[in-house]
Amino acid sequence: MHPAPSVILFTVLSGLGFGLLVFLGIGEPEVTGWTAFWFFLIAYALAVGGLVASTFHLGHPERALKAFSQWRSSWLSREAWAAVAALVVMGLHAAAAVFLGVTFTPLGWLGAALSLATVLATAMIYTQIRAVPRWNQVLTPLHLVSASLAGGALLAGQITPASVLLLVAGLIQVGHWKVGDARFAEVGQSLASATGLGAPGRIRAFAPPHTGTNYLLREMVHRVGRKHARKLRALALTFGYALPLGLILVPGAGHLLGGLAVLSHVAGMLASRWLFFAEAEHVVGLYYGARG
Amino acid sequence: MTCLPARTDRKLGLVIDLDTCVGCQACVVACKGWNTENYGAPLSDQDPYGPDPSGTFLNRVHTYEITPENAPAQIVHFPKSCLHCDDAPCVTVCPTGASYKRAEDGIVLVNESDCIGCGLCAWACPYGAREMDATARVMKKCTLCVDRIYNENLAEEDREPACVRTCPTGARHFGDLADPDSAVSRLVADRAGLDLMPDLGTKPVNKYLPPRPRDRWEDASVLAPFLEPVADSPQGFLGWLDRALERL
Ligand code: SF4
Ligand code: SF4
Ligand code: SF4
C-alpha cells in the first residue's frame, strides 16, 4: 500500500497521544496543577495533531462530520466517535486536575478506556481488510495497541511499565513481521483464483489494461526492495524499542535521557509505520501480474 | 446506510464471456463515454496527451496468457468492472454512508455528495473496482449504468449498460442473477460460470464464463496431416540414396 505521510504521522502521533492519555487517566503519574497542564498539553497536541494530519489524506475534509454517521458498520466511524468521546472525557478530567487540583478516579479510568478504544478502532480499520492479508491477522491490533501503550508509558515517565511494554511491544512487532511475511501465501490468492483461469493451465499477465499508471497502481501496488525493508526493520527495532529501553534503564536517568528515549522511539515508530504500509500487499496487485 | 441489506429482491449484474471477448476495448470507451457525462462527477484524465497519462475508468480490460498442458498457449482478454458483490466489503467500511447497496436490485453505488474521499472502500475491494477521481476527489465505480437501465427516455433496446450495448462480440450480458430462469442465469448454469476469488467471501453477483478448451497441437492446422512424414524408412530411389550416403 502507498505509505502516505499523512497517515503515517496520524497513526504514530495520535497513537502516542492516546497512549499518554491512558496513563494520565489511570493516574500514572497522578498529576495536578501546572505539571498536569504540561502533561495534558503534550497528550492533546499529539492526539489532536495526529487527527488533523489524518484529514489531509481526505479528498473532501470539509465533509468530515459525515464520518460520524455509520458507527454500526464502519470502524472508521467508530474511531471518530471513540476519539471525540476520549478527548471530551479526558478534557473534563484534565480541567479538574489543572484548575481544581483534584482527580476523579472513575472519570480518569473512563477516559483511559475510551483512549484505548480509539487506538483499537484505528487498528481495526486495517485489520478488517481481507484484501490485504498482511494486515488481516490477530497481531495487527496487538501491535498497534502495544506500541501506543509503550510510547504512552515512556512519555508519562513510568519506568517500570515502560520497560515491560517496550519489551512486549518489540516482541509483538517482530511477530507481526514474521506472521505478516507468510500471510499472503497463507491466504492463497493467486492470479489463477483472481481470474478463475486456474484450471486450463499456467497463467501469466500478458498485456496491461492501460498504458500509463492509475489510481490502483499508485495506491495499492507499492513495491519495496527486500534489502531496503530489512534495513528499515533493523532501524525500527533499534530506535523504536531497544534504544529507548536501554536509555530509561540507565540508573538515575533524568529528563535528558528520557527525552532522548522518546525521540528515538518516535523515529523508530515512523520507520515501523512506513513499513506497515509499504510492505502491505493488496490482492489487486495479482491482476497486474504482481506477486505470483 | 452502510449496513448491507439482509437480502436484495433482484441481483442485477453482468455475465462476462471470456471465450468471446476479443479485447477490443470498446466497452472501456463506451463506459467512459456514458459515465463521464451522466451519473455523478465526470471521469477525469490527467495529462491525457502528455508523457504520463492517467485517468479514471470504471471498466478495464486485462489480457492474460494461459498455457494448458499439451495445447498451445491461449490469449484471454479479461474485462473487469465492479462485481456488485452480495457481501460487499467496500460498503460496510464506509464511514459516511456514501457507499451503499440497493435493496431493490443489489446495485452498489456511491452517493458522491456524501463521500469524503477517504479511499477506504477502494482498499476493501479485492478486485480493484473502485478508483478515486483525481479531480473530483470522490470515489468512482461502475453504476451498472443505473441511469440507462431504468431510463424511459431511451429506446427500449438502449436500456442496458453502455458496455453491454456496445460490445461487438456479445461478450457482456446483463440481467437478473437472482432469477434462475433469466437468460444470464441459464448462461451461468450452462457454461459453469464462476466467481472471482470466492474464498474472500464477497459473494460477487457478476460471473465469468471460462474460455472453452480450444486448439490442440494435433489439429493446430488443417494441413497438418499432409505434413506428416510419409514413411519412416524411405523406399526406392530415396532408400538407395539414404543407404549409399550412410555407407560413405
Ligand atoms: S467488486 Fe469491489 S467495489 Fe464492487 S461490490 Fe465488490 S467489493 Fe465492492
Ligand atoms: S471514499 Fe467515499 S465512499 Fe469510499 S469509504 Fe470513503 S467516504 Fe465512503
Ligand atoms: S455497467 Fe455501465 S458503469 Fe458498469 S462497466 Fe458497464 S458501462 Fe461501465
Automatic annotation (TrEMBL), chain A:
GO terms for biological process: anaerobic electron transport chain. GO terms for molecular function: dimethyl sulfoxide reductase activity. It comes from the Bacteria. One of its GO terms (cellular component) is dimethyl sulfoxide reductase complex. InterPro entries: DmsC. Keywords: Membrane, Transmembrane, Transmembrane helix. The chain crosses the membrane at residues 7-26, 38-59, 80-101, 107-126, 232-250. PANTHER family: ANAEROBIC DIMETHYL SULFOXIDE REDUCTASE CHAIN YNFH. This is Dimethyl sulfoxide reductase anchor subunit. It comes from Roseicyclus persicicus.
From TrEMBL, chain B:
The keyword 4Fe-4S applies. GO terms for molecular function: 4 iron, 4 sulfur cluster binding; metal ion binding. Keywords: 4Fe-4S, Iron, Iron-sulfur, Metal-binding. PROSITE patterns: 4FE4S_FER_1, 4FE4S_FER_2. InterPro entries: 4Fe4S_Fe-S-bd, 4Fe4S_Fe_S_CS, ET_IronSulfur_Cluster-Binding. The keyword Transmembrane helix does not apply. Pfam families: Fer4_11, Fer4_2. Residues 12-42, 73-104, 106-135 form the 4Fe-4S ferredoxin-type domain. This is 4Fe-4S dicluster domain-containing protein. It comes from Roseicyclus persicicus.
